[in-house]
Structures are given as structure tokens and as C-alpha cells.
């Protein structure tokens, strides 16, 4: 009779050790591959929104949609809802699959640090399309992209000093359209960013509506977010790079949070230590 094959305990331990080492090498690679795949899908989503926007421009003399909060024409709630960017562009995309970045499909959640302080982490949070913001096709959905609402075709507002900041039409009006953001990773549906907006003090901090840059300053894609620009290109944007983009006509792209300011590095370390080592722009 043939000799039976059997493993000794030492041989089994060696095999298990080898498998453990291989898994330790493989798992980080798989995680990076998964993150890269999600980032590609996110860029594809934004590209589809851009295609829809291009068709919208073609049908509306290169103008953007009106702002949701415009009330000069006494709109009904249904008319106001139709101005939300996701509703205005719905006839040109007609798919719910591009509302969410694959990394951001959760509601907001909280974390507790080593000192026992509980923080709300909005990094992968989504925003709900409430009834007052919806049309029948988008009712009940969530989104994880936000509009630079300075692009909207806002109605004239007497006495409003920021009236002339809006872009209103495609093209850039003398500025590079590749530097004008339209849509990007965000935990809220719209924002009006200003050069003086302070970065989040911790990862995913909600600084409220008075400081809108924090809605985009999210570590969703390895210290980057994805964005759609006025020339309808899409690309990743470094978190500190956000302060160098041309959000509105009067936005200073060489402000206090950019390398143009000699004190910017010290300012980052003090205001947002979690971002201090990230690439500066």
C-alpha cells in the first residue's frame, strides 16, 4: 500500500504564515485598486452631468439655470424646485445612477476622538432631496455632489454687492473656463465659496452655511475630490487647491490659503492640522 501523505504541525504553521504574509501584501493593493475604481466611476458620473449641462446650454443660449432662491418672478414652490441643478439637468441625463459618488453613499455619522469629544464626520455623507426640492423623477433620492452656485443665472438684486459675482453663462468671460468649478464632491447640494472661508478644523467638519468651502474640502479620494469645470472637463482637485479655483468673478485665487501668501503654511498648521502635510498650491 502506498504511503499516506500528511502535514506536520510545523509544516501547517509555515503554510499558514506564508498565506498570512501574502494576504498582508495583497489586501492593501486590493484596497487601492478598489479606491481607484471608485474614483474613476465618480469622474464618469461628473462627466455625464457635464454632457447633460452641455445640451442644456445648447438649448438655452449658453445660459445657466436660475437660482433656486430667486423670487423676482414670484415662482411657485414647484417652479423653484425645478431650478435645483439636479432637477434642471434631469431631462438631459435621465438616470439616478449618477447622483452618488461610490465612496459617498452614507448619511452623516459621528466619531469620538481620544479626548472623548464627539465630532460629526461629513466626509462620506450624502444630502437628501427633500419634497420641496424634488420633481417626481428625483423624489426620495440622495446626492453627494454639490453645485458651485455662483454659476447660476441669478436675477438682478438691487443693493446686493455680490450680484455681479455670478457667471450666469458658459465660457468664463475672460477667465480660463478650466479653472471655474461647476460641480464636485460635496456633502451639500450647493455652496457659495469665498476666498476667506476657513478650512475644516478636523476631517469632515461641518462649518455651516457661512463657511461653504468645508462642504467641498473632503478627503474622499486620497486627499482629493473630483470636479466638473466650466470647459466640461473633469479631474481630481487637491483639497488645498480648492482655494486657488475661480469660484466667482471676483474670487481672489491668490488669497491667504494659497502659496501666494508667505504665511499660508503656518496658517494651515494652526487652522487645519489634519491637512498640514497635504500638498500646497
Task: Give an overview of the whole structure.
The chain starts with 8 loop residues before the first helix and ends in a 10-residue tail after the last helix. A hairpin with a 5-residue loop joins strand 1 and strand 2. The longest helix has 51 residues. 26% of the residues lie in helices and 12% in strands. The protein has one domain. It is α+β, with helices and mostly antiparallel strands and 281 residues long. It is built from 5 helices and 9 strands. The model has no long low-confidence stretch (mean pLDDT 88).
Beta strand count: 9
The strand order across the widest sheet is 7-5-6-8-9
Rg over CA atoms, rounded to whole Å, is 23 Å
Looking at the structure, what is the overall shape? globular
Element order, helices and strands? HHHHEEEEEEEEEH
Brief account:
The protein has 5 helices and 9 strands; from the N terminus they run ααααβββββββββα.
Keyword list:
281 residues, alpha+beta, two-stranded antiparallel ribbon, five-stranded mixed beta sheet, 12% strand, 5 helices
Write the topology of this structure:
Layout: H1 9-59, H2 77-81, H3 85-88, H4 90-93, E1 109-112, E2 118-121, E3 127-128, E4 142-143, E5 145-148, E6 181-185, E7 190-191, E8 224-229, E9 234-238, H5 264-271
Parallel strand pairs: 5-7
Antiparallel strand pairs: 1-2, 3-4, 5-6, 6-8, 8-9
Amino acid at each position: 500500500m502506498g504511503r499516506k501523505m500528511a502535514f506536520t504541525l510545523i509544516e501547517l504553521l509555515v503554510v499558514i504564515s506564508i498565506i498570512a504574509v501574502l494576504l498582508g501584501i495583497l489586501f492593501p493593493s486590493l484596497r487601492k485598486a478598489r479606491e481607484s475604481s471608485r474614483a474613476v466611476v465618480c469622474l464618469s458620473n461628473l462627466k455625464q452631468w457635464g454632457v447633460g449641462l452641455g445640451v442644456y446650454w445648447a438649448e438655452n443660449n449658453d445660459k445657466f439655470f436660475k437660482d433656486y432662491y430667486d423670487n423676482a418672478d414670484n415662482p411657485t414652490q414647484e417652479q423653484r424646485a425645478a431650478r435645483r441643478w439636479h432637477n434642471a439637468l434631469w431631462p438631459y441625463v435621465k438616470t439616478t445612477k449618477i447622483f452618488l459618488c461610490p465612496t459617498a453613499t452614507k448619511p452623516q455619522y459621528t466619531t469620538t476622538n481620544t479626548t472623548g469629544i464627539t465630532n460629526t464626520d461629513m466626509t462620506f455623507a450624502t444630502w437628501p432631496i427633500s419634497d420641496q426640492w424634488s420633481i417626481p423623477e428625483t423624489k426620495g433620492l440622495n446626492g453627494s455632489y454639490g453645485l458651485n452656485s455662483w454659476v447660476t443665472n441669478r436675477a438682478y438684486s438691487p443693493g446686493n454687492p455680490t450680484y455681479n459675482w455670478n457667471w450666469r453663462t458658459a465660457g468664463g468671460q475672460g477667465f480660463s473656463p478650466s479653472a471655474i468649478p461647476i460641480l464636485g464632491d460635496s456633502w451639500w447640494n450647493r455652496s457659495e465659496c469665498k476666498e476667506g472661508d476657513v478650512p475644516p478644523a478636523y476631517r469632515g467638519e461641518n462649518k455651516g452655511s457661512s463657511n461653504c468651502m468645508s462642504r467641498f474640502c473632503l478627503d474622499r479620494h486620497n486627499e482629493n475630490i473630483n470636479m466638473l469645470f466650466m470647459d466640461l472637463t473633469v479631474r481630481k482637485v487637491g483639497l488645498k487647491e480648492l482655494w486657488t479655483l475661480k469660484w466667482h468673478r471676483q474670487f481672489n485665487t491668490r488669497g491667504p490659503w494659497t502659496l501666494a501668501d508667505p504665511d499660508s503654511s503656518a496658517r494651515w498648521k494652526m487652522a487645519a492640522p489634519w491637512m498640514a502635510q497635504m500638498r500646497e498650491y
